[in-house]
Amino acid sequence: MTVYEADGSIVIVDAGLAFPRDEHLGVDLVLPDFSYLVERAEMIRGVVLTHGHEDHVGSLPYLMREVRIPVVVATRLTLGLIKSKLDEHGLAREAELREVAPGDDPFNLGPFRIEFIRMAHSIPDAAAVVLETPGGRVVHTGDYKIDHTPVDGQRTDVGKLASVGNQGVDLLLGDSTNAERAGVTQSERVVGEAFRQIFPSRTGRILISSFASNVHRMQQAADVGIECGRKVAFVGRSMRKNANIARNLGYMNVPEEAILRPQDLAELPPGEQLILCTGSQGEPMSAMTRIAYNDHPAVRVEAGDTVIISAKPIPGNELRVHDAINRLARSGAEVLHEDNAPVHVSGHGRAEELRTIIALLRPRAVMPVHGEFRMLAAHAQLARESGLAEENIVLAENGTVVELKDGVARVVDHVQAGMTFVDGLGVGDVHDVALRDRRRRHPCRLERRGRPHGAAGADRARLRRRRRAAPGRVARRGAARARAAPSGRRHRDQAPPGASARRARRHRVPPHAQAADDPACAGGGLMAHHRLRYVPTWADVLEECATEQATALRLIAQLGACEASALAFCRLLEQWARGEPKPATPGGRQAAIRRAAERVETALSGLQDPLDRYLLELEADALEGRSWYGGPGVAELLDWGPILDRAGVRVPADRVAQAYLELAVLVRALEGLSDAARIELVPAPSSLWAGLFDLRENLLGGALDDVRVLTVT
Ligand SMILES: [Zn+2]
Ligand SMILES: [Zn+2]
Fold first, then answer.
1. Which residues surround ligand 1, an ion (CB under 5 A)?
2. Which of 393, 358, 388, 353 is nearest to 376 (CA)?
């Protein structure tokens, strides 16, 4: 995210999010800290997006909840992706969405005159942004490579770049991702060629996992697959969604008759299947991970199949990707990936391309952006080698204020910036994460949001109307977070009639928080305020969306029992995992897990009926919905064998692992819904429907089977 400010006006270029690394324990999303913008909300004229990748657009919905954005400007596909994202957040009508194509006349936002230039990247319709500002002309490249043979023929427009260079560029903000790598990034077509080499000789299934946004990759795979007599199935939510958007907008051309629904795959011989799926980062619960774990409802992999991982693991994801590769290989499939076949190329230009851009634009100053600091430094070195003077190379980090005045750029200040962590959300599919309706903001942010702004969604008002006071609790997940629940205080004045009985029931659901300090909150001093707020939970959401209150109350009661027993089960196991076999003897522990399993079994078996009933009554467009919750975290994919051995408990470890996973996801799903409620966001009924349906179809049955086995051991 880059904030451009001039004459009291602000234009924001890109609003991305980052995916947490291992050190962000329990964090699910990393957003920019919006406080600078919140303090200057009335100055914002609009957001300009360079392309549709999550690291450039992912935080837009969160930003739009903090401040009013009058207009979002982007190219067609980027807008298509954004629109669907905003729809799911209930924000689609909150900003004008303005489509601009490279080559269109420049447009004005406040004092900025803005123009797009076509750039090639790993998603179609990427653009660089030229900003004429009162202080000088700026070119912001976004992500790019100079692909001379892109799949859609839309090359990086070097002619236009050169002509902007001729007009004079004062500051270049350039993509640094591959600055450390010498040479030139290969064309996307290379991957198509690899597919052409690989496909014809294969007789089993071919399964390709890539980013769901890599439309050209999917297109090339589909083209070759269809030529080889295969049908194409898009598997994984974001893969299906993006394929739909791209096909509707004309960015992907796969004939309807060549497409197969995942559930129809079984009817086709393996040799006629081409499966395009999500999960190239080994994300838990993504299509590929589930397939690797032989846990996918529609897709299985066996000897003779070929799995192509057409992506590079984002740093931090390597272990999970390797785990998936190992599992797939164990099932007899041949696994092709970047290291053993040319099945992936980067979307970012390497050193020679960066040099070319500098040569075309001949900027007075260069400010490397996008990438870790060492990549920025490598980009700075390239600028130096291109003849830029040291004082014209601006190495900025998050929060650095760079002034461009009379064509001279220099660092003048540093403002509060950095990261905002979002937790309570399982990172599922990388490109799907932000689409979920359940999310929770950092409490600091929640409080700081303060001022009411515009009509930021009717859904918010809906919950506020029925806000009641309750023992405040700040439920935080994970080991190193959470804050003790402060002593309760109720404000009954806003409670609707009849609410108190329900409330009593609801609060039997134990708070699943543990006390700890949240470093990100330190010094905030805002939590005191937090205590007085009524904290709504999943139960409020279920009640809110219900058609028949009686059904909702039955479901809430039963689901509460399920949550409590699932928690007890998971906590018991986690104690053993931490090496705390006390207080019992092995025999006692054996009995303890049996009792915990029995409790879960009782609770779960009572759930089917109210859940069915609730789903039946829920007025939702079931086809539209996407589940609000994600899958298990990495920490939940534990190997329970050694742990149970150590505890001296003899139960089938695979069943324990399954049950633990399913119950942990159940707990997490409910937490997620509570999180959504806490930020006053009621998921769309269709999303609630999809999530509950998913719960019923994919979790509860399995969990019940698994705990039943444990009750008899
Ligand atoms: Zn990027
Ligand atoms: Zn990108």
1. 55, 143
2. 393
- Domain 1-99, CATH 3.20.20.70 — does that match? no
Cα separation of 543 and 466, whole Å? 11
- Cβ neighbours of residue 648 closer than 8 Å, sequence gap 6 or more: 581, 585, 586, 589
Length of the chain in residues, anyone? Answer: 713
- What percent of the chain shows pLDDT beyond 70? 80
Range 189-336 has CATH code 3.40.50.300: no
Q: Where are the alpha helices (DSSP H) in 71-205?
A: 76-88, 158-167, 189-198
Quick one: pLDDT band at residue 688, thresholds 50, 70, 90? confident
What is the CATH code of the structural domain delimited by 107-186+345-414? 3.60.15.10
Distance 647 CA to ligand 1 centre (A): 46
Do you find a cis peptide bond into 486, omega within 30 degrees of 0?
no
Topology agreement, domain 1-99 and domain 189-336: no
Residues with CB under 5 A from ligand 2 (ion): 53, 143
The CA 52 to ligand 2 mean position distance, Å, reads: 7
**What are the residues whose beta carbons fall under 8 Å from the beta carbon of 107, sequence distance 6 or more?**
73, 98, 100, 113, 114, 115
Q: At what angle do helices 653-678 and 701-711 cross, to 10 degrees?
A: 130
Q: How far is the CA of 370 from the centre of ligand 2 (A)?
A: 9
- C-beta pairs of 193-201 under 8 Å, 24+ apart in sequence: 193/342, 194/341, 194/342, 194/343, 195/220, 195/221, 195/224, 195/225, 195/308, 195/343, 196/224, 198/306, 198/308, 198/336, 198/341, 198/343, 199/224, 199/225, 199/227, 199/228, 199/230, 200/228
Nearest ligand, measured from the Cα of 371: 1
What pLDDT score was predicted for residue 498? Answer: 33
Indicate which residues carry an active-site annotation: 175, 348
Element (H, E) at 13: strand 9-13
For the chain, the structural domain boundaries read: 1-99, 107-186+345-414, 189-336, 538-711
pLDDT interval class at 463 (50, 70, 90): very low
Whether the pLDDT of residue 487 is over 80: the answer is no
- CB neighbours of 105 closer than 8 A, spacing ≥ 6? 115
CA–CA separation, 422 vs 20, rounded Å? 10
pTM of the predicted protein model: 0.63
- Strand pairing partners for 112? 109
Closest listed ligand to the CA of 123: 2
Task: Work out the pLDDT band at 573, boundaries 50, 70, 90.
Answer: confident
Q: How many angstroms separate the alpha carbon of residue 76 from the centre of ligand 2?
A: 16
Among the bound ligands, the one closest to the CA of 121: 2
345 CA to centre of ligand 2 in angstroms = 13
